[in-house]
Amino acid sequence: MDDLVTERLVLHPMTLGEAERVVAGKSDSDARWAPGYPTEGDVSAATRLLSTSAISGDPQPFGTYEIRRRDDGRAIGGVGFHGPPDVNGSVTIGYGLVPSARGEGHASEALRGLLLFARAHGVTRVKGDADHDNIASQRVMTAAGMRPAGEDERVRYFEITWTDTAADTDPRP
């Protein structure tokens, strides 16, 4: 599967070998990791990719993507799907960045790229959530076009829906 490219980022579909290295915390000679990569969230996503692949095969294109800066190729985080679309065309997403890459709009840009990809592949709804005190993550989803869709005692839920899945240059409805 090809990389997804945005203005400043490359969303690289994580391979099983890359996932194994992330879980082990050991970069190969070709991998360029920014300081702090992988985070706990990246390790969790790589572990989920390995588990899913062992049970039902490679989940791509609805798997995990490494977020890499285009200018230096360094991995600064991850974004991806928690699984393939359900029978209603709905998926759940997650994302995260190393601390040194936060606050520069990278997460919103990566999420917008993933939303465009999802829309182009027939997804009708994308869901996500953020802890109540994680205002930055809530802003990321809002900036990418997702809207609040409820909350419980732990998290606020966000989603974006489309009735027409034809992708354009803006994932927002």
Major sheet details: 8 strands, mixed
Number of helices: 4
Q: How do the helices and strands follow one another from N- to C-terminus? A: EEHHEEEHEHEE
Shape: globular
| Mean pLDDT metric | 92
- The CATH architecture category equals 3-Layer(aba) Sandwich
Strand fraction equals 25-35%
At a glance:
The chain has 173 residues and is an alpha+beta fold. The chain is built from four helices and eight strands.
Describe this structure in words.
With 173 residues, this protein is α+β, with helices and mostly antiparallel strands. It has one domain: 3-Layer(aba) Sandwich (Aminopeptidase), CATH 3.40.630. The protein is 29% helix and 27% strand. The protein contains four helices and eight strands, in the order ββααβββαβαββ. The protein has an eight-stranded mixed β-sheet. The longest helix has 17 residues, at 40-56.
Write the SSE topology.
Blueprint: E1 4-5, E2 9-13, H1 16-24, H2 40-56, E3 64-69, E4 75-81, E5 90-97, H3 106-120, E6 125-131, H4 135-143, E7 147-151, E8 155-161
Parallel strand pairs: 5-6
Antiparallel strand pairs: 1-2, 2-3, 3-4, 4-5, 6-8, 7-8
Provide keyphrases for this structure.
173 residues; eight-stranded mixed beta sheet; 4 helices; globular; GNAT family N-acetyltransferase; transferase; Acyl_CoA_acyltransferase; protein N-terminal-serine acetyltransferase activity
